[in-house]
């Protein structure tokens, strides 16, 4: 597949078929992504590739914890000033519209949120982690670790697309990182950056008909000569 075609084909999948992905395919995707660049070639990333009964256990634990306050290892800003606020709202509204869920239908929205905690039905999830020793070296926060994880995340998602698989880069799977560390037997130093649920797209689910928009080139880029 042409690279631009692959970039355009990738989109966030919010409903997966339950069909399992062979471990060999998951390995090819993550191994292939490892050529991503990183600051000083530090390669701050580590991966937990989780499927099967272990993932079912995590999904259930997230549902059980879902009334608790999320506790992201890498916090996200709650304030979205304009124009970023409108872009966020457009995604949420766009997905709910495809699902036929009214804004004020609290029950349906809660059910949709719970489906998110079930990783939208994905049979596997690639969790991207960094180590707190590096992330908080010098008593600060090395944000370039997160940037580097973003670079490799896109490699993973593009390779998955080439394998005919859908993905979604998401914070929802890491909202309760202590639950993940406990289920995976990981120490507190392993910080959860994001999860990439992965699987075959359920193209019958209307949520997957949604496509996010992009600002045009002319609005975000300018040539200087
Ligand atoms: C860091 C990050 C976190 C995200 N977290 C979520 C999430 O928790 N739930 C969700 O539905 N989408 C999540 N997304 C997906 C974005 O909404 C999506 O990438 C954006 O709307 C663009 O759409 P596209 O991926 O289909 O091109 C996340 C994306 C990124 C990069």
What does this structure look like?
- With 225 residues, this protein is of the alpha+beta class.
- The chain has a four-stranded antiparallel sheet with strand order 1-2-4-3.
- The chain is globular and about 50 Å long.
- The chain has one domain: NADH Oxidase (3-Layer(aba) Sandwich), CATH 3.40.109.
- The two termini are 34 Å apart.
- It has nine helices and four strands; from the N terminus they run ααβαααβααβαβα.
- Bound molecules: flavin mononucleotide.
Task: Note the topology.
Layout: H1 3-9, H2 23-33, E1 46-51, H3 52-65, H4 84-99, H5 106-117, E2 124-131, H6 132-135, H7 143-162, E3 166-167, H8 177-184, E4 190-199, H9 217-220
Antiparallel strand pairs: 1-2, 2-4, 3-4
Helix pairs in contact: 2-7, 3-8
What's the short story on this structure?
The chain has one domain: NADH Oxidase (3-Layer(aba) Sandwich). Helix content is 43%, strand content 12%. The chain has helices at residues 3-9, 23-33, 52-65, 84-99, 106-117, 132-135, 143-162, 177-184, 217-220, and strands spanning 46-51, 124-131, 166-167, 190-199.
């Amino acid at each position: 597949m042409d690279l631009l075609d692959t970039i355009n084909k990738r989109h966030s999948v919010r409903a997966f078929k339950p069909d399992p992905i062979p471990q060999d395919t998951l390995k090819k995707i993550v191994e292939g992504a490892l050529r991503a660049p990183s600051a000083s070639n530090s390669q701050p990333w580590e991966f937990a590739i989780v499927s099967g009964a272990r993932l079912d256990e995590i999904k259930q634990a997230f549902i059980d914890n879902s009334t608790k306050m999320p506790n992201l290892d890498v916090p996200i800003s709650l304030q979205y000033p304009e124009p970023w606020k409108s872009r966020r709202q457009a995604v949420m509204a766009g997905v709910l519209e495809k699902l036929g869920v009214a804004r004020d239908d609290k029950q349906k929205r809660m059910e949709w949120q719970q489906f998110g905690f079930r990783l939208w039905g994905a049979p596997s999830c690639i969790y991207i982690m960094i180590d707190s020793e590096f992330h908080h070296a010098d008593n600060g926060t090395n944000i370039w670790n997160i940037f580097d994880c973003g670079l490799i995340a896109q490699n993973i998602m593009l390779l998955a697309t080439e394998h005919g698989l859908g993905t979604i880069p998401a914070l929802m799977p890491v909202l309760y990182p202590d639950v993940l560390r406990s289920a995976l037997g990981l120490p507190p130093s392993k910080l959860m950056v994001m999860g990439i649920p992965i699987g075959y797209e359920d193209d019958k689910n209307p949520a997957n008909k949604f496509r996010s928009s992009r600002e045009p080139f002319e609005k975000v880029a300018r040539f200087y000569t």
